[in-house]
Amino acid sequence: MPRLSEVTAALDALWPPALAEGWDAVGTVAGDPDAEVGRVLFAVDPVQEIVDEAVKLGADLLVTHHPLYLRGTTTVAADTFKGRVVHTLIKNDIGLHVAHTNADRADPGVSDALAGALDVRVVRPLVPDPADPAGRRGLGRICELEHPLTLRELAGRAADRLPATAQGIRVAGDLDSTIRTIAVSGGSGDSLFADVRAAGVDAFLTADLRHHPASEAREHAPLALLDAAHWATEWPWCELAAAQLDEISDRHGWGLRVHVSRTVTDPWTAHAASNPAPLSTFGAPN
Ligand SMILES: [Zn+2]
């Protein structure tokens, strides 16, 4: 069995930590570099439910997309929820390793996995990494559809192919408009509107779109918007990452058992559709 340090070195080669944003906190959060690793679990969020799943599975390493601590802390006491996560990991000899914005920027990265889930062909990064001469690394991806779809059909495809969440897919735009090109970005994407506009695509699929950036983008140009749950846009990367580690394990004869958590950790748990009746105010008589 490989040691944790060998596995994390292989993960760092896939998603070089130097690609991470300056504010990010990536790399190994918990774990003894000399500990042996036989079973690995991939997930989006390092929350207690996921750590409990890792314990049940007998995992030696949990790899998550989101960091446990993004800022400094002065306590890992188990009466804080993050401290409890740390205690559970250490008591059960489970390492935690994070690949966040380095996995966003990598080739292949989080948005490649999202494009793969949507079955659209990646053309180039939305925001290319100037340090990559091949022009494949960067944030988001610009993609082409094999056959044009209406926005209605594309939204249906996103709802079918991304993992199910309470939110589903929010859509802005003419449902009968034709979509040939789409920008995709896993996670919160509303800081990328200027790049999306410059790319001249027909649609943008991301998560966490806020009122003002979305409204202004719609006023600027006839851009269709598809807003999925944050977790759902990043989960496809877990499957891609697990396949990548599986392949490395085979190449080295490590015999790793690699798993992907199917637990939905999107914080939103229900969606109440609005009443389709005409707008009325505060129970005014009709
Ligand atoms: Zn995210």
From TrEMBL:
Domain of life: Bacteria
GO molecular function per UniProt: metal ion binding
Residue positions binding a divalent metal cation: H65, H66, D104, H230, E234
Keyword presence, Chaperone: no
Gene3D superfamilies the UniProt entry points to: NIF3 (NGG1p interacting factor 3)-like
Pfam families referenced in this protein's UniProt entry, alphabetically: DUF34_NIF3
Record keywords, A-Z: Metal-binding
Coiled coil region boundaries: none
GO cellular component: cytoplasm
The keyword Metal-binding belongs to this UniProt entry's keyword annotation: yes
PANTHER family named in the record: GTP CYCLOHYDROLASE 1 TYPE 2 HOMOLOG, NGG1 INTERACTING FACTOR 3
Family classification: Belongs to the GTP cyclohydrolase I type 2/NIF3 family.
Entry-linked NCBIfam families: YbgI_SA1388
Subunit structure: Homohexamer.
Full protein name: GTP cyclohydrolase 1 type 2 homolog
Organism this protein belongs to: Streptomyces xanthii
